[in-house]
Write a structure and sequence with these properties.
There is one protein chain. With 439 residues, the protein is of the alpha/beta class. It folds into two domains: 135 residues, Alpha-Beta Complex (Aspartate Aminotransferase, domain 1), CATH 3.90.1150.10; 263 residues, Type I PLP-dependent aspartate aminotransferase-like (Major domain) (Aspartate Aminotransferase, domain 2), CATH 3.40.640. It contains 15 helices and 17 strands. The chain has a seven-stranded mixed β-sheet, with helices on both faces. Strands 13-14-17-16 form a four-stranded antiparallel β-sheet, covered by helices on one side. β11 and β12 form a beta hairpin. α2 packs antiparallel against α10, α4 runs parallel beside α5 and α11 packs parallel to α14. The N terminus is likely disordered.
Length: 439
């Protein structure tokens, strides 16, 4: 008879992360043990670049020590082993976001991934690609839609595509608190919309946007959806199939991986219809002196020597995140994010952008200190060993809409404790007094 699981035999769900486990996690990250300016390092800049566990560093080193060779080229043993490791990494990263291996294209970062899509559309507009590429052609009368909260990487490439093709660029505005105005989205997204590009989670506001709602609006008009998943894939469970986006971009260095590698997810049928962006070796089938024929995706978009060791290391990062548990990571960061926002809101002279304490957000908070420039705030915190991000965070239009020039941003990850947050809040509470703008 088949064995039927009962509550007594089911494997218990892992316990939620707490400070004790996070302190053990921190031991896996060599850099977190170093002092900065005579203080223990409090790293609150993972929204820009996360740190690497030892397993990721070792994976890249082991590749170079044991199987360093070009992939998809040589027939010798090292080349075969390198290719197997490279493609196994693709499968691992694809599985992490609910995709298939042939739907993941390696890029240098998310910026390149989004540019890949825009230039492929531009090439299709110029008449390049198979017959199916006609679906990507843009011209006068067509509209490309983004949002007012976008990172420049998901804004400027679309502006440039509009310039190249004659399409019109439009955007969904935000309200005074930075929230996406969904009632306006229903007006902006219309029959002429060909592309909707938006961020899953804002790198300034901490807002988590309603992906399914926006996807349904766009698909109802026959538009393609491009998701900036840089601040979501590292921090919460993401299944691109469930979200039904057409393309999604994310970066390795924000999810415990190395710099120099990112990924573009695309639905297989769309990728195989798109003309290539970069051309050269390793992405072709036949070349004559007059023309070339191209491989299917993903190799079609991976010209030249690839990011082999970085891909292997990114797979190790994905493994680390999966072993820890994305649900647990998201829950812990939500807790830290609420602690950040509530603490900042309680400090006089602080304006926090994005959702208020108690509202859903990812584990980051960007804020303005009345009377003190963000660069001075960042230097003050750095003197105490606290690393944060300052500036406009590659989101000038959003800051301008909020009436701000720049902000200071603290962003958490799975290796941050409540003590990190409290040390940060204690330091911020002294900023205005230090600079003489409060008693």
């Amino acid at each position: 008879m088949p064995v039927v699981s009962t509550p007594a035999t089911l494997k218990p769900a892992p316990a939620a992360l707490d400070n004790a486990e996070v302190l053990r996690i921190r031991n896996d990250f060599p850099i977190l043990g170093r002092p900065v300016n005579g203080h223990p390092l409090v790293y609150l800049d993972s929204g820009a670049t996360s740190q690497n566990p030892a397993s990721v560093l070792e994976a890249e080193q082991e590749f170079y020590e044991q199987r360093n060779a070009a992939v998809h080229r040589g027939a010798h043993s090292l080349a075969v082993e390198a290719t197997e490791a490279f493609e196994a990494a693709r499968e691992a990263v694809a599985g992490f976001v609910g995709a298939r291996g042939n739907e993941i294209i390696w890029t240098s970062n998310a910026t390149e991934a989004i540019n890949l899509v825009t230039y492929a559309f531009s090439n299709a507009t110029a008449g390049r690609g198979p017959a199916a590429a006609q679906q990507f052609r843009l011209g006068p009368g067509d509209e490309i839609v983004a949002t007012e909260m976008e990172h420049h990487a998901n804004l400027i490439p679309w502006q440039e595509l509009a310039f190249r093709t004659g399409a019109t660029f439009r955007y969904i505005p935000v309200d005074d608190d930075g929230g996406l105005r969904l009632e306006e989205a229903e007006k902006v997204i219309g029959p002429r919309t060909r592309v909707l590009a938006f961020t899953h989670a804002s790198n300034v506001l901490g807002t988590i946007n309603p992906v399914r709602t926006l996807v349904e609006l766009a698909h109802a008009q026959g538009a393609f959806v491009v998701l900036d998943a840089c601040q979501s894939v590292p921090h919460l469970p993401v299944d691109v199939k469930e979200l039904d986006v057409d393309f999604a971009a994310f970066s390795g260095h924000k999810m415990l991986g190395p710099t120099g590698i990112g990924a573009l997810y695309g639905k297989a049928a769309l990728l195989n219809a798109m003309p290539p962006f970069l051309t050269g070796g390793s992405m072709i089938t036949t070349v004559t002196m007059e023309q070339a024929e191209y491989l299917p995706a993903p190799q079609r978009f991976e010209a030249g020597t690839q990011k082999i060791s970085q891909a292997v290391a990114l797979a190790a990062a994905v493994n680390y995140l999966q072993e820890t548990g994305m649900d647990r990571i998201h829950a812990w960061e939500t807790h830290l994010g609420q602690r950040l926002v509530a603490g900042l809101e309680a400090i006089e002279g602080i304006r926090v952008t994005g959702p208020k304490a108690g509202s859903e957000r990812i584990g980051l908070a960007a804020f303005d200190v009345d009377g003190v420039h963000s660069h001075d705030v960042g230097q003050f915190l750095d003197d105490k060993g606290i690393a944060v991000r300052v500036g406009h965070h590659c989101a000038q239009p959003l800051h301008r809409r909020l009436g701000l020039v720049s902000t200071t941003r603290a962003s958490t990850y799975l290796y941050n404790t409540t003590d990190d947050v409290d040390a940060f809040l204690d330091a911020v509470a002294g900023v205005r007094k230090f600079f003489g703008v409060a008693k």
